[in-house]
């Protein structure tokens, strides 16, 4: 049973996205197929070179870099959201794939969960 977790919250200012990331890592740790889709303001999680020290938080880059190690199958970014925030593939962390968020994507998963 595969799960898609959708994060549409910005990386800082709310714990909802981090909780969703923890849920994805937990599922993957129990050999459950899980992927993460970042849409809306959530695509900012995937931006390279983040510096969150001015808001006294740690950058989310390390957390996301660990996703493949934990067994998360894919990190996906919504194409429209990337366009909205001026992000190109070169601006995003590796290994992020840009995709179109819609029924064609979500139908590939048995479960779809929204963070927030």
Structure description:
The model has no long low-confidence stretch (mean pLDDT about 90). About 30% of the residues lie in helices and about 20% in strands. Strand 1 (about 5), helix 1 (about 15-30) and strand 2 (about 35-40) form a beta-alpha-beta unit. The chain has one domain (about 5-50, about 55-115): DsrEFH-like (Hypothetical Protein Ychn, Chain: A). A five-stranded parallel sheet has the order 4-3-2-1-5. It starts with a strand and ends with a strand. It has about 120 residues and is an alpha/beta fold. The protein has helices spanning about 15-30, 60-65, 65-70, 80-85, 105; strands at about 5, 35-40, 75-80, 95-100, 110-115.
* Beta-strand content bin: 15-25%
Shape category: globular
Task: Let me know the largest β-sheet.
Answer: 5 strands, parallel
How many distinct folded domains? 1
CATH topology: Hypothetical Protein Ychn, Chain: A
- Superfamily (CATH H level) name: DsrEFH-like
């Amino acid at each position: 049973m595969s799960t898609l977790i959708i994060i549409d919250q910005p990386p800082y200012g709310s714990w909802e996205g981090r909780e969703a990331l923890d849920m994805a890592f937990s599922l993957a740790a129990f050999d459950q197929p899980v992927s993460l889709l970042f849409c809306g303001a959530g695509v900012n999680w995937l931006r390279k070179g983040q510096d969150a020290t001015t808001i006294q938080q740690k950058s989310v880059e390390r957390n996301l870099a660990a996703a493949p190690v934990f067994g998360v199958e894919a990190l996906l970014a919504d194409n429209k959201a990337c366009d909205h925030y001026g992000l190109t593939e070169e601006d995003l962390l590796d290994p992020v794939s840009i995709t179109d968020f819609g029924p064609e994507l979500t139908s590939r998963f048995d479960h779809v969960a929204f963070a927030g």
